[in-house]
Amino acid sequence: GQSTLDLNAPYYPFSPTEPVAHFFYLKLDEPFVRTGALLALDVALAETGNASSDLRLNWSFWNGTTWQSLGESTSGNPSAGSADFAFSDETQAFTQDGTIKFTVPAGWQVRSLFGQDGRWLRVQLVTGDYGTGATFRPPQIRTLLAAYTWQLPRIDRIQLGVQVVRQDLMPALSFFNALPLDTSKDFYPFGEKPRL
Predict the structure, then answer these.
(1) Residues with Cβ < 8 Å from 157, sequence gap 6 or more?
(2) pTM of the prediction?
């Protein structure tokens, strides 16, 4: 089933009663729109998850067509999947406190989920579980805080070019032999009777 979580109290990202695959969605519009930013999700757990050895989480974003993977994590590996977005999960699939980090990708699109439009992070429990029967202990999050570092573009150089076109300019000075000429009137450049 689908439910909206109260983030002001400890909450279960996955079902607290059913040891089956689930999805956890998180909407953070400001950080998720900062393409190229290094995002850090600081997670403090109220209860650590009892992860099976084959438990694997896939972290993804909506690119407008499909859920595209940011990376994967397991209880023994903070970055088990692709390294395209510098993904790392120090919580190791919510089995300890830690920070989840990745580079915010370009093309993170708005999607409507649970009656809310926004940019959503999806965490899918792909394989494994957090125990079964008497050993079932899913993770419970006490706090999840987001921060990001975004390098502003740096301009190395601005180059400007100016082209000036002026026409019909009069010469400032003109001389015939040593005599000045008035170039605002008709004149003989070599005098009225030029000779060698």
Answers:
(1) none
(2) 0.72
